[in-house]
């Protein structure tokens, strides 16, 4: 891991700008909310960038057209908190415990996006845990999901 001081807010702005084309193609609106003063953190920029990209891309892909994906970055008691909330297909309750397992994909996700590999969330979790962070996940089938992470400010 190549850890250095990161401006996660700027990384997030860059990723959202790159994904705007994808969101526009799928008629999904991205709503970006970043706290005024998000502290710098020490982390591996490429790995954190990849986790954010994966979570936002998933939210766009699994959302229905003309829906909004809410992306936020905020200060949270000595940590930064990143979340992506969609109103897409959600994860069936019976499958939530396996969601971060290698190669696991929800049955509804396989139908909606047959080309997925099932390693994105597994790798995201690995990256966040290796940075002493924690995953954020909530979902209700048919109503949407929130994915994200908290990372300590050091």
Automatic annotation (TrEMBL):
GO terms for molecular function: phosphorelay sensor kinase activity. SUPFAM superfamilies: ATPase domain of HSP90 chaperone/DNA topoisomerase II/histidine kinase. It holds the Pfam family HATPase_c. Coiled coil: none annotated. InterPro entries: HATPase_C_sf, HATPase_dom, His_kinase_dom, Sig_transdc_His_kin-like_C. It catalyses: ATP + protein L-histidine = ADP + protein N-phospho-L-histidine. Keywords: Kinase, Phosphoprotein, Transferase. It is an enzyme of class 2 (transferase). Residues 1-154 form the Histidine kinase domain. Its EC number is 2.7.13.3. This is histidine kinase. It comes from Candidatus Minimicrobia vallesae. The lineage of its organism: Bacteria, Candidatus Saccharimonadota, Candidatus Saccharimonadota incertae sedis, Candidatus Minimicrobia.
